[in-house]
Amino acid sequence: MPSRAKKRQRLAKTPPDTEEERDTASTNNSISAATTTTTTTDDKHKIFTTFALSQGITITNVAPSLLPGRGMGLLTTAPIRSGTTIIHVPPKAMLLPRPSNNLSPQAALTSHLLHLSTTSDPRYAACATVWPTRSDFRSSLAWFAPTDRNLDYKHLFPKSLAGAYERLVVDAEHDRTALGREEGDEEFMYHWAIANTRSFSWKPAGAREGRMVICPFLDYMNHCQAGDGCEVKMDSRGYTLVANRNYDTGEEILATYGAHSNDKLLAHYGFTMPGSQDDSISLDEIILAGKHAHKEQRHTLESVGYLGNYSLTPSTNEICFRTQVALRTRLLTSNEWEYYMGSGDDIANDKSEEVKESLCRMIRGHIENMTDMTTKLKQVRDEGKGHTQVLSSILERWRQIQDALQKYIDPFGT
């Protein structure tokens, strides 16, 4: 069961949300069982479901379930027809911070959660019983604990993944400073991670400012690739999850968090989706390597806004237009290159095959380096000094990258 945050003095920057505090008295009795009874994993989720219903959350034929190897998710308890409202969370049931002009939306939500953790707020107390624990975050997120951020094997991560981790650390440090929290503050980091992994964007039509909010019960929902899964709607009445098709009993209810690559999913949430059509493989490290990109070529690409952000889409085995433009700097005259950049067509002979062959030569050398990196990372993991789950996930990401690159070069032989 997740630990409640330590009692702290009330944060000066986060005064009580009066809308929530007005509702506190009417909900205290509903949460008493969840906060005073030692329960099994199944029991605590049943108690939380009862509490969610008492807050006006609509729940239709779904229940939280432990999925082997995947954590918690939502399974249907009875058939559901397409178009059915499965879950509806009204604003009064959300953990909803006040808008702030001085804080990022994530910092504002983190600050709000930190404040609620020092009170007897029943909604916070109920949510805290089913949130991931600090141990859960530490085992799955490489950036969670301050000591984890200085891992001496970060150089063995894929560059694109290491970059995503670093951006998260920078964001967390910026928000920590904005809230005036001390370096290494575990309570801040835990609640920032909750905000990062479980929140929803909240900006109904007509609202002047957007916020990040916690939608109790709806946040049990797991991710699927864009275009699949249920529809999530937001308006002034709250968040609504609508069935996208007919469901039989025992099926998992999914919705997309966004069209994210596996680098982002792994960095932010601690998992990947093998085979996802949303995945992309960064080619920056390959194309911009010193031996491939001369200073003049870099300058040329930068001057027109085409330096970096090159990618391969594994589901289609195609490279992006930015990559096509970058690789043609080596093959075309300046006039031909500018024509291609503006039209997407080669003015003379089609250079598509030459572009692919050029990229394949770069990829072959990179795959050899990848093999060396993964061998070293496996050795670190197998030494058993901790972070086993994190390192296994990163090795899986390496495998996905290597498989995608190998698939791209296979038609061209060795």
From TrEMBL:
<dbReference type="InterPro" id="IPR046341">
    <property type="entry name" value="SET_dom_sf"/>
</dbReference>
<dbReference type="InterPro" id="IPR001214">
    <property type="entry name" value="SET_dom"/>
</dbReference>
<feature type="compositionally biased region" description="Basic residues">
    <location>
        <begin position="1"/>
        <end position="11"/>
    </location>
</feature>
<dbReference type="GO" id="GO:0016279">
    <property type="term" value="F:protein-lysine N-methyltransferase activity"/>
</dbReference>
<dbReference type="InterPro" id="IPR050600">
    <property type="entry name" value="SETD3_SETD6_MTase"/>
</dbReference>
<dbReference type="Pfam" id="PF00856">
    <property type="entry name" value="SET"/>
</dbReference>
<feature type="region of interest" description="Disordered">
    <location>
        <begin position="1"/>
        <end position="39"/>
    </location>
</feature>
<feature type="domain" description="SET">
    <location>
        <begin position="55"/>
        <end position="258"/>
    </location>
</feature>
<protein>
    <submittedName>
        <fullName>SET domain-containing protein</fullName>
    </submittedName>
</protein>
<feature type="compositionally biased region" description="Low complexity">
    <location>
        <begin position="25"/>
        <end position="39"/>
    </location>
</feature>
